Amino acid sequence: MDEILGEFIAETLETLETLSGEIVAWEADPSESARLDAFFRFFHTVKGSCGFLNLPRFERLAHCAEDVLAAVRRGERIADPATVSAVLAVMDRIGALARSIGEEEQIPESEDDALLDALSMNSGGFEIFAPLPVATPTGDEIAIAPAEDEDEVRVDTPVAEAPTRRSSDGGSRERAPRTIRLPLALIDQLMNGISDMVLARNDLARKMRDHGVGPDLEGSFERLSANVADLRDMISKTRMQRVDRLYAAIPRMVRDLTRELGKKATLELDGGDVEMDREMVEMVVDPLTHIVRNALDHGVEAPADRIAAGKSEAGTLRIVARQSGNQIVIEISDDGRGINRAALVEKAIAARLFSAAEASLLSDGEKLNLIFHPGLSTAAAVTSISGRGVGMDVVRANIEQIGGVIGVTSAAGQGTTITMRVPLTLTIIPGLIVRSGALFFAMPRGNVVELLHQNSSMIAIETIGGARIATIRGERYSLIELEDILGLERNTELSGPRTLMVVRSSIGQPYVLGVEAVDSNEELVIRPASPAITAAGVFAGMTLPDNGQPMLLLDAAGLAQKAELPLREADSKARPTAIKADADVRAETIQALVFCERDGKQRLLPLAVVDRVEDLDAGQITISDGIAFARIDGRLMPALNTQGAETGTPKSLRLHDGHEQISYLIEDVVDIIEVPRKLDAQLSQGRIAGLVMVGDTQLEMIDPFAVFAEAAGRRVGAGGTRPIQCLIADAEDPWMRNILAPLLLQAGHDVSFGAAGDGTPDIILCSDEAAVCAAGDVPVLALREVADPAAGGPASIYRYDRETIMAAIAQAVRRAA
To answer: Distance between CA atoms of 247 and 137, rounded to whole angstroms?
Structure first.
């Protein structure tokens, strides 16, 4: 019985979360019978289940709500705001009762009478009860529900033989998905296991490159690697949730707030099909809720004020989510009054953050960013919703703590847009591997603004009052050394200059962290660290890089606290000189990598396209048919700037355009600087985009478009811009699977197995005896077992004639194209 009761509670709370937004939409359009039917079915289901489980309070509330909705269905009662509010209150009470089952404190049964009176036809009005707490959003594929000891996930799996439900009018509905519930811990264990497999695969690939293996073993490894990658993607999807589950509670919240504030607002939600990691969804719930409340309270005007301003009576609140690379971008915009910069500056001066003279030097962007300062608010009076100056600073801290960025734009009288950029997942993040005191640590790449060498001409280091200060391009930062914070011995035999990292902290000003060196840039698998380690306050967890050696993940905010660095508000008075640098001009600059070409000439390259800097072995550079390739991380990518037979350890810039990667060989990395987005002189000659003045020196800027276009042209010359999709029809044939498939993979083609017609291949390969009927115009290539042409079909090819097979594949695909 306990198991059945747990299922009832989980299903009830899950359905309530979904319906809380639907009932607001039903109120806006009472003629929508489908939504009314959904609410009626919910209460009817609860009533029926309660009789079996002996829950009389549930049964009483559900029965009364069901009667009211039945009256609405018959046309005897209209869905006015009072009725909708009463139904919402009953749903809230059922949710509260479900959560309180098994707890000592229970909601008094006498309070149910007020709800039932509100449902009465003679009720003259109804005050909104406390809304449902925002539940943890869940996705269509994973629905979180509480169990006795641990959370569980419900995995919805469409099954063809599932019974088809039919509506009352005889029309068919969608088949109900069959589901199972799994502990979240099991999903995490699966993810950890597949991550370990990926690390083991990478380690094996490195050893295979070092020792050298035959083509047959490489082909088998490539197939294994592809299977591991597919398995990792599938397991990762079990952790992903649709953003529309994050939206579920927003319509209800907007409705309640607008009624409380006496305002009108239309809610627009877009991008609900975007998916993100469930842990990231949980992190975004509170910031998004706070921003929506602020938009309705501060931004959207009262109806009378909007009409006086020439606007529609109802404001518009729009929330849009989209995926941009490995980030999720969530924009919350309103068409309200905008942010009053003058009021923010006046309150900042009153709080003695800076003087009136210093305030006059603030740029527009810095004035807007004052809303993130603790204690500052644009509200004229303190209300139950906002006005205390507490909230937006916490929102920014929460977003930056998970490696995200938050920004704000506003136009007076037109509205405000707040943009949150958060990582797609917290499980795997890009990070830098740093070395200090003969030990290795990881730093999230999202916390690092830029990297510089300590001997760079752009850096001036001085000691003031016992504290070290680094001045970079007019900006002053606190300088701390990682060895000093962690109590490590400094390496006195360091041959080159130390590396300085400009780190963005979630609780304080950006600061400079000195490390011995930055070794590499990798995708890191994040694991929780033991309590004894996290208690130190400077580590955010542990990670396993490709070499499989565990290392600790540094916490940017924890390092700042350990070093007792000044907080944001404490350092404001020390920045008037930095404010004079004109932030608007800085906003039109980009970060560029200064590097030394193999001919000794220094050039620039936009840092945005540089994925990592790495040292290669000469054996990793191969030339085939005049085209150079770099073998990195078990894959081949075009290599530019090769010098024939390579020797030593050439340095490579791995460039990434969002889809393809190429290797650009250089002599060495010099620095990272900021340069104007607009070039001083446009050239557009080959790889050179133009000239940029850096101090008294002019440097050539590499054109990423030209570089990637050159690499793409080489790929075309090497046999096409994409691999040929080969379908092997004889999936059980050992020769086809063990001999032919590795050969095709080595040639750069994609291979799949199955019956003819599965998928959309470019060509189908089969044995000469197999009769394959290809769908459409897909060519079929038959391979015979004997060399004698007379022994096989007229169009067959001897299975060990490699050149003829490859030529036939390319010719068949070209003919079909």
So the answer is: 8
DSSP 251: H
Residue-wise pLDDT for 354-367, tens only, equals 788 877 778 888 88
The model's pTM:
0.50
CA proximity to 522, closest of 499, 485, 549: 549
Q: What is the dihedral of CA 660, 692, 473, 564, to 10 degrees?
A: 0
End-to-end CA distance of the chain: 63
Query: pLDDT value at position 31?
Result: 67
How far apart CA 609 and CA 143 sit, in angstroms, is: 38
Q: How far is CA 386 from CA 291, 297, 351, 569, 725, in A?
A: 11, 7, 19, 21, 58
Distance CA 247, CA 271 (A): 10
Q: Tell me the DSSP string of 337-379.
A: S---HHHHHHHHHHTTSS-HHHHTT--HHHHHGGGGSTT----
- Give residue 331's pLDDT band: very low, low, confident or very high (50, 70, 90): very high
Does an H or E element contain 471, and which? strand 467-472
Amino acid at 499: T
> What 3-state DSSP class applies to 582?
coil
Residue 130 has pLDDT above 50, yes or no: no
Do 332 and 271 touch, CB atoms closer than 8 A? no
**CA angle in degrees (0–180, nearest 5) for 335-341-347:** 130
Is 617 in a helix, a strand, or coil? coil
In which order are the strands placed within the sheet that holds 688-694? 668-676, 589-596, 602-606, 697-702, 688-694, 681-685
Beta strands (DSSP E) in 534-687 are 539-544, 551-554, 589-596, 602-606, 610-615, 621-624, 627-632, 635-640, 651-656, 661-666, 668-676, 681-685
DSSP 745-769: HHTT-EEEESSTTSS--SEEEEETT
β partners of residue 435: 440, 517
Residue type, 137: P
Which pLDDT score is estimated for 319?
Answer: 93
pLDDT tens track for 427-440:
667 788 898 877 89
More confident call, 107 vs 89: 89
Q: Which residues does 229 contact at the CB level (< 8 Å), separation at least 6?
A: 198
Is 436 in contact with 444 (CB distance < 8 Å)?
no
Mean pLDDT rounded to a whole number for the chain:
75
Contact 779, 757 (CB under 8 A): no
**Token digits of residue 113:** 């009478």
What CA–CA distances, in Å, run from 758 to 727, 728, 765? 8, 10, 13
User: 699 near 596, Cβ under 8 Å?
Assistant: no
Report residue 440 as tokens: 């290795």
Read off the pLDDT of residues 642-693 as tens digits, 9 standing for 90 and up. Answer: 877 777 788 888 888 776 788 999 988 888 888 887 887 777 667 888 888 8
Sheet holding 467-472, edge to edge: 448-453, 499-503, 511-515, 475-481, 467-472, 459-464
Task: Note whether 376 and 384 are within 8 A (CB).
Answer: no
Contact 555, 537 (CB under 8 A): yes
pLDDT grade, residue 225 (50/70/90)? confident
Q: Note the pLDDT of residue 93.
A: 83
Asked if 316 and 266 count as a contact pair (C-beta separation under 8 A), the reply is: yes
Give the three-state DSSP class for 150.
coil
Tokens, residue 412: 């007076």
Distance separating alpha carbons of residues 671 and 673, to the nearest angstrom: 6
Could you give the CA distance from residue 243 to residue 422 in angstroms, rounded to a whole number? 13
Burial of 64 (0-12, 13-18, 19+ CB in 10 A): buried
Q: Which domains are delineated in the chain?
A: 2-133 (1.20.120.160), 246-423 (3.30.565.10), 428-577 (2.40.50.180), 588-717 (2.40.50.180), 725-816 (3.40.50.2300)
